[in-house]
Q: What sequence folds into this?
């Protein structure tokens, strides 16, 4: 992934407003990857306290949120029962996340994040700026622009937690 | 402040792209205010561990970042020596922040955040979307759109930390 740029502007291959949104998604992702660079499996699995999520679980959460919003924004649907079961520990975090989201190297999380992001970017490249403003049939209070901003916003919030947790890995 | 909406779209009183950015700034701020609602001065000053920033210090940081970016984006200048001295503990956080940023009630932080935000919104209302894309003379690697997104982005990152810290206030 290239270094983040410090500009938001139309990007080649995307409609103008979508390009600015892609710039935000990219910046958020690059700062997440920077925040976890070089972590070992033990560090990814470390639990700061009994109610803490591991850094690895937070990475799985970031991926699951992006996959969930993919359904809602691009496929106009909520999750299937199978998806719900697969994503539930990562979406909800907490005890189930602590039990299940572990024993994976950094490369696993990075690959999963990259796979989810590729789908998002392919779908965005095929849409126009009018699409970005429409309400979402599967979540009528939201429009697509907010939903995709929220994908970055939730990632940034957890990246703040990851930085805090990483500084205390000892 | 109104409840956050879950739409990003042009807003009355702002150029279209600026309106979407204002929607992001507002959403980030509302979630910060929700994250600190009802906290006492003792809770705002609480230090989770020896290297932690208090929630109050993080609120002061969010305000200082917005005031700093006001200079850089709207006034095309870096900070004066007086501003640098005034904002340094909140911008840098750490030991000086722990020493100086305390003993203030929630209302103080909320008022300061509101004052800084009012200036930002007034300045944005007076500008157009072309302005948003220009490079910043005081920070040439950035354009104004990125700089103001970063104001929200930094706030969201620290709001993630505030939520984590609040959940452990006991």
A:
């Amino acid at each position: 992934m290239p270094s983040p740029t410090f500009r938001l502007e139309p990007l080649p291959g995307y409609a103008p407003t979508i390009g600015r949104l892609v710039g935000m998604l990219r910046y958020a992702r690059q700062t997440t990857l920077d925040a976890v660079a070089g972590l070992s499996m033990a560090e990814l699995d470390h639990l700061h306290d009994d109610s803490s999520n591991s850094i690895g679980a937070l990475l799985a959460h970031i991926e699951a949120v992006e996959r969930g919003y993919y359904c809602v924004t691009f496929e106009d649907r909520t999750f299937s029962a199978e998806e719900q079961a697969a994503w539930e520990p990562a979406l909800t975090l907490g005890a189930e996340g602590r039990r299940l989201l572990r024993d994976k190297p950094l490369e696993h999380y990075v690959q999963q994040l990259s796979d989810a992001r590729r789908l998002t970017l392919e779908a965005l490249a095929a849409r126009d700026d009018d699409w970005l403003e429409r309400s979402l049939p599967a979540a009528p209070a939201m429009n697509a622009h907010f939903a995709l901003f929220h994908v970055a916003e939730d990632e940034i919030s957890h990246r703040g937690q990851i930085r805090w947790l990483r500084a205390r890995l000892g």
The two ends of chain A are 28 Å apart (CA to CA). The longest strand of chain A covers residues 139-143. Chain A has eight helices and two strands. Strands of chain A lie at 135-136, 139-143.
